[in-house]
Amino acid sequence: MIPPYRHMTVLLVAILLAPPTGAREEIRLESLPEECGPVEIGNRLVYRFLRTERMKLPYRYAEVCTWSGALKFAHASGNQDFLAKLEERFVPVFSTDKDAIPPIGFYRDDFKHYVDFNVFGVLPLTLYQITRNDNYKALGLSYADAQWTLPEGATPGHKAYLEQGLTWQTRFWIDDMYMITALQSEAYRATGDRKYVERAAKEMIAYLDALQRPDGLFYHAPDAPFYWARGNGWVAVGMTELLRNLPADSPCRPRILASYTKMMECLKKYQRTDGLWGQLIDKADIWVETSGSAMFVHAMITGITHGWLDKSRYEDGAVEGWMALIKHLDAEGNMTEVCVGTGKRNDEQFYYDRPRKTGDYHGQVPMLWCACALLEYVNR
């Protein structure tokens, strides 16, 4: 395994001696210093993940997303050692750790967080695309298909959503726009069957129509009218994932692209001088939050790579965001200033007062996504 802190001293010196934001014109996405580059940072994040004990079962979305992100980074960087260890960690779900697998397509009227469990399917589908092991494919598709199959105990409301072509799991919570679209996008990548990505695109448009504000951002929920950073980050990453996978002739693509670019433009306006965004995006007096910030940086880097965003207008912000995020990666490979899991509340002070954690998976995974996006840009 790659030593975790090979460039630690150099990295810390580079960060401490880095010139102020306005003087970084010489640093570009394709010429980041090695100690600040995607391979070095991604290696540290994956190494940290592999040293972290698995969470209580069944697996939930934050751990699943970090695991999948680690796999994608290891594959993109060609790190076979990491790939082997990440797969080895998963294999027991077919034997001794069967209870790790979340229930498929279940519904209880007192427990509605089904998308948080269903996103587990992203993990075996990611593994399948790397290994071509059909057992992984079958497991992952069972979760993707369950989102469009009525479960036992479904309500008339669930049925009504399905009749509209939407998943019965529709809730109009903004984080759904990653949880649903990521799973369906991976199913499309694994099978080539457009039904998966097209139905995810239709779902996305329904959410955009219902939730996107005129300025391009999103309230945490209709009854929580606040621009919570990580909630907006899930939408930004969800749209990015769809745009990476939607065929050029998809009738849904223009609408999603327009909403994505509108959101990026507004985020550009609220990016702080330190390169990051606040826990509430539009509040200048609130603390910096790294998980949402990393999601926005990932979306911007990917947009530049694929030509959805004008490089001349967005590259400086992407570079400044990445360099600022690195400063919040501690010596153990943990991201700092990560908002804990947060349900909606119609109380602005609630968001100001949320605890912050170090090393929370919510902050680890978007940094892995950023590293992957940078590798994709460099290798384009």
Automatic annotation (TrEMBL):
Q: Which UniProt keywords apply?
A: Hydrolase
Among the GO molecular function terms of this UniProt record, one is: hydrolase activity
Q: Which residues form a coiled coil?
A: none
Listed GO biological process terms: carbohydrate metabolic process
Q: Name one Pfam family in it.
A: Glyco_hydro_88
Name of this protein: Glycosyl hydrolase
